[in-house]
Amino acid sequence: MNLTLDEIQNFKGKYPKQIWGLFFSEMWERFCFYGMRGMLTFFIAHVLLENSVLKIAEKNETANLQYGAIQAFVYAFTFLGGMLADKILGFRKSLFWGGILMIAGSIILSINPHDFFFFGISFTVVGTGFFKPNISTMVGKLYKSGDSRTDAGFSLFYAGINLGALIGGYVCIAIGKGEMFSKYIPENLRWNIAFSLAAFVMVISLINFLFTQRKLGTIGLQPGHPLSENPETKISKWKEYAVYAGTFALIPLIQIMVHKTQYTDYFMAVIGPLTLIYFFYEMMKVSTSERKKLLAALVFILFSILFWGIYEQSGGSLSIFAANNLNKDLFGLDPNGVNNSGGSFFIIFLAPLLGLLWIWLGKRKIEPNTVVKFGLGFLFLGMGYYVLFATKFFANLQGVTSLNIFTIALLVITFGELCLSPIGLSIMTKLSTKNLQGMMMGMWFLASAYGQYVAGKIGAGMAKVEDGATNYDALITYADGYKQLGLYALIAGIILILISPIIKKLMQEVR
Ligand code: GLN
Question: For residue 48, what is the DSSP state?
Answer without folding.
Answer: I
